[in-house]
Amino acid sequence: MAANGNEACGFANGESSVSSNGCSKDFAKSQPVLVNGSAPEPSSHSNVLQPERFTFSPEPTIEDIRRMQAEFTDERDWNKFHQPRNLLLAMVGEVGEVSELFQWRGEVAEGLPDWSESEREQLAHELSDVLIYLVELAEKCRVDLPQAVIRKMALNRLKYPASKVHGSAKKLRALIKGCFSAAPITPGSSVKGPTANEGADLLFRKTVVP
Ligand SMILES: [Mg+2]
């Protein structure tokens, strides 16, 4: 595995390509994301206008959220209750509260056009509860969440190359099935090649692990 963020992101050419949000500028440039609702800009790869995307405010950061929750629990002397297992269960409970808001509605369109302001605010509350517990759980488990996300996204890009899975919901393992078989390596040989699953694992390890 790569030792630094640039290599992990697949940009090992020595360029300083890390933007202020901690990710590769090249990666950020490839995302058709608009900042704070500004007018759509042409894609860097074509003159086609990309659809406007919702974006978050830059603050608070994840570290800000960790600090605010730490202050909240310190002020109430609740740290003695906030062990990792309790935090995990609390977070799962909050996920259930999010689920209740979607329950029995059928499919919900992006942007929630049919939801009232009150329902949207309730959703914002419950999603915030999930995030707050997630951040505190990561803190208590000593997981540096922002850096962990960068590492995991790099692994995801290696595991699911856009050229292989573009437009498909199938996982790469299923897509490359058939490239391998347990047939004899040479006719008449008793030595067999890898199965589809073994082949997928071999390919993944060869790709991800130097
Ligand atoms: Mg709640």
Automatic annotation (TrEMBL):
Residue intervals passing through the bilayer: none
Cofactor requirements of the protein: Mg(2+)
Entry's localization field: Cytoplasm, Cytosol
Gene3D superfamilies membership: MazG-like
EC number(s) per entry: 3.6.1.12
Pfam families reported in the protein's UniProt record: MazG-like (PF12643)
Lineage: superkingdom: Eukaryota
CC annotations in GO: cytosol
Stretches the record annotates as Disordered: 1-23
Biased composition (Polar residues): 14-23
GO MF, one annotated term: identical protein binding
Listed GO biological process terms: dCTP catabolic process; DNA protection
Keyword Metal-binding among record annotations: yes
Catalytic activity: dCTP + H2O = dCMP + diphosphate + H(+)
Annotated keywords: Cytoplasm, Hydrolase, Magnesium, Metal-binding, Phosphoprotein
InterPro entries from the UniProt entry: dCTP_Pyrophosphatase, DCTPP
Function: Hydrolyzes deoxynucleoside triphosphates (dNTPs) to the corresponding nucleoside monophosphates. Has a strong preference for dCTP and its analogs including 5-iodo-dCTP and 5-methyl-dCTP for which it may even have a higher efficiency. May protect DNA or RNA against the incorporation of these genotoxic nucleotide analogs through their catabolism.
Subunit structure: Homotetramer.
Protein name: dCTP pyrophosphatase 1
Native source organism of the sequence: Channa striata (Snakehead murrel)
Classification lineage: Eukaryota, Metazoa, Chordata, Craniata, Vertebrata
